[in-house]
Amino acid sequence: MTPSAVLHADDLTLAHGRTVVVDTVQLTLPPGRLSAVVGPNGCGKSTLLAGLSRLHRPAGGAVLLDGRMLAHLPAREAARRIGLLPQSAAAPDGLTVADLVRFGRQPHQGLLRQWSSQDQQAVDRALTATGMAPLADRPLETLSGGQRQRAWIAMAVAQETQVLLLDEPTAALDLGHQLEIFELLRDLADAGRTVVAVVHDLISACRHADHLVAMKAGRVIMEGAPHEVVTADLVRRLYGVESSVLRDPATGCPVVVPRALAS
Fold first, then answer.
1. Cα 146–147–150 angle (5° rounding)?
2. Reported confidence tier of residue 55, pLDDT bands at 50, 70, 90
3. Which of 50, 81, 192, 231 has its CA 20 to 30 A from that of 163?
4. What per-residue confidence (pLDDT) applies to 200?
């Protein structure tokens, strides 16, 4: 894989109509690390991810990839460098895991470049990396929720982008499947990808992420390593909840124990 890319938001403002949802965010995502974006519902996390992927056009500011404005890159080049897995992705009935993963190679196709052994190798690597190779011929609708999510991530892995953005990849999964997905994202970051995930659960974000981005009301109010930035005061500011922040004796990561709504 090519070296990890540096993704930077420079006073990024994103709006829905006249309503500003992300307000002048200044943010650099550490390359080759797993970053988690956390915050209360409606604070702009998903919109920020859409802006970072070029899916949502900025109302102000810019997104830069290795110092180049993302908006100025050709669409195919941008798709080869940044992958986005949105919430509630859907596929046609009857599609197999392998069929889905092959879609990840579309940015690498063109009039002068059709399907090649290189594409098939990328698909095979993605299936193996996500543990989906034994299920390659299974229709998606026959899989469990965790398996389906792994299949979608395999598609994004096959795209072979330097940056991978995921919007709540563990939503609606049980504890065991959540751990599987976080371990997979951890492996992808350790292999050199810059991985950014919107994470609903603060405790999981603290346990698995290298870098935490805390948002409230469209702004980034804190960022850094979880053990450095997660405090009872931050939990109160984000969620209006009084809590105790303990340390996991095995890992040293913060463990948030909610006590009551803040008065």
1. 90
2. very high
3. 231
4. 92
Amino acid at 79: A
Residues in Cβ contact with 247 at an 8 Å cutoff, skipping those fewer than 6 apart: 227, 253, 254, 255
Count, in order, helices (H) and strands (E) of the chain.
9, 12
Give the CA distances from residue 228 to residues 9, 31, 207, 224, 225, in Å, rounded to whole numbers and listed in that order: 22, 19, 13, 7, 5
Q: What is the pLDDT of residues 182-212, one digit of tens each?
A: 999 999 999 999 999 999 999 999 999 999 9
3-state secondary structure of 173: coil
Q: CA-to-CA distance for 241 and 105, rounded, in angstroms?
A: 44
- The mean pLDDT value for 93-112 works out to 87
Record the tokens describing residue 76, joined without a space.
């195919």
Contacts (Cβ under 8 Å, ≥6 apart) of 57: 71
Q: Has residue 1 got a pLDDT over 70?
A: no
Residue 195 is inside which H or E element, if any? Answer: strand 194-198
Tokens of 188: 């992808």
The answer to whether the beta carbons of residues 54 and 70 sit under 8 Å apart is yes
- Distance in angstroms (rounded) separating the CA atoms of residues 27 and 11: 8
Q: Are 208 and 255 in contact (CB under 8 A)?
A: no
Amino acid in position 216: K
**pTM for this prediction:** 0.91
Question: Looking at residues 83-106, what average pLDDT do you find?
Answer: 90
CB atoms within 10 A of CB 252: 9
